Amino acid sequence: MAKKTKAEKAAGSAVAAAADAAKGAKKLSRTLPKKDAKKLRSVVEEAAAAADVSKKKVARKPRKVEKAATAALAALVKATGKVEARLAARRAAEKAAEKKAAAKLVEKARRRAEAREARPVHEEPPAVEVSSAAAAEATAAPEVPEVPVEEAPPADVEDLATIGAPAPAVANEPAPRRRAPKAAVAPFDASDLSSLTVAELRAKARAEQRTGYSRLTKAQLVELLS
């Protein structure tokens, strides 16, 4: 195996440095805003392309490979430095804005406290001392005047006798009911019954609550009802 020359070694070192820088810049671009990330990615792609060379190319043209890798690495370092500087400036501006906002809040709170202290305090009027005698008179219940009671006149003896006497009883017994006399039933004549039909005779037997008339003949029905 042939030994590497100094040019090949230098080219290999430049290619490795460009590849490592491209990887780091690619990770950094993922955390940046879209505009900054887009600018940095284009430089990262150039550095990755400069580092992506074969061993044969390094052996054939080591100086050219080294020059391309070194230039890509320098451009990548410059672009990364600019991005980092912008990020640092933004962070500093954000911190300054935060400090300014905090200072405003403190100043606002201080002014409120001063305004609160400057307000006049209303003094309470002195308490009036009240003697014990006056306090007792104020808390004592008012006197109620006596009202003369008139004597009632004596009650009459007859009125006293009627008081408590039981009231006369009222008869609530119901009056006895009177039954209406039954109408006399006129006897039926056999000649009248013979003029009726069998259906009429059976209806008459049913009205008189007779039994066994359903199979009787007309003569038997007349005999039953007569």
Q: Would you kindly provide a written description of the structure presented here, covering whatever features stand out?
A:
The radius of gyration is 69 Å and the shape is elongated. The protein has helices at 6-29, 34-51, 55-60, 62-118, 132-139, 157-162, 190-194, 198-207, 218-225. It starts with 5 loop residues before the first helix and ends with a helix. With 226 residues, it is mainly α. The longest helix has 57 residues, at 62-118. Among the domains are: 6-89; 190-224, no CATH class. 63% of the residues lie in helices and 0% in strands. The protein has 9 helices and no strands.
> Major sheet: size, sense and barrel closure?
none
Q: Roughly how much helix do the residues carry, as a percent range?
A: 55-70%
Secondary-structure element order, N to C: HHHHHHHHH
Q: How many separate helices? A: 9
Beta content comes to: under 5%
Q: Strand tally, please?
A: 0
| Chain-averaged pLDDT | 76
Structural class: mainly alpha
From the N-terminal CA to the C-terminal CA, the straight-line distance is 162 Å
Broad shape: elongated
Uncertain runs with pLDDT below 50, 5 residues or more? Answer: 157-165, 180-186
Gyration radius, to the nearest Å? 69 Å
